[in-house]
Amino acid sequence: MKNNTQLNALDEHFMNIALQEAAKANNKVFPNPKVGALIVVENNIISKGYHKCYGEDHAEANAIRKLDRPITNATLYVTLEPCSHLGKKNPCTDIIESKMFSRVVIGANDPNPKASGGAEILRNNNINVVENVCTEKSKKLNRRFFTYFEKKRPYVILKIASTLDGFIAELSGHSKWITNEKSRQSVHKLRSTCDAILVGRKTIEADDPSLTSHGYGKDPKIVILDSNNKINPKSKVFKNEPIVFTSKDLVKDPKKNTIYMLKKLYNKSYQTLLVEGGGETLSYFLDSDLFDELHIYYAPKIIGNGKPLYIGNNTLTKDYKLQLHKVEHFDHDIRMVFYRDN
User: Fold this and answer.
1) Which run of H or E residues covers position 199?
2) Is domain 152-340 classified as CATH 3.40.430.10?
């Protein structure tokens, strides 16, 4: 019989494999989380599965369906608590039967109150349930999902395109184009993974952008910050019925406005918000400390004067707890992606 230390080590080992399985999923699962599952009998993995697409089978169902023989006394490893509610599919707790599974090991509990409670249901069905194995890894894999439910606001991504000397536009507001076409295509792909995209009125006036994904996937809902009620209703964005926050919604305190907008978007079930500028709008989010991820594109251009990427008033002691996640090259442009260590 294994002691607790051995069992804990084994559980972590298999959960890490389940997390690798979950990571195979792409953005087709959104707004659902990425989830992986393993079925283990006598320390041998006999089936794997992951959630592939929103509205399709969950990880547990995919792993069970792939079994090629009847099983008993198996252990199911799943990176997120099995769901207990009827959604696009039946509850996963319905198919995790005690005649097949004696143990279920869970990476992280589900923060969605509509879906949580699966662990307790399984216990009531005479299954031994172990929770919180590799929890932080499971949560990091689904940063957007956990932020939305735990912080009750959208996951906020700030995107900046800058010259090497820190400008996002010429003094006139002209910014077409700082970055190259490949960089811009990566932005379009990023938009397709987000529920909403926010810009300030001045960005609309300067560029008259469409703010779509340009065919790379679904288009995000357009959100505009227009505190002075000056936006031109003939702008391209009005073809897509944007949400516009105006003076009737906003006050003179940028942080209060940022909190207000995020609350409204949360209530409308927007899980991820991409903030594309301009400098004033980006600065509101930076100064409010209300963001989770930063994508900054640098192009090999120097203009000496222009609109800066940040207009706040920080000092070198200000620590946003940014951790470099990756650096990508688009010909001679680079993109640096930072996650916040919250």
Assistant:
1) strand 196-200
2) yes
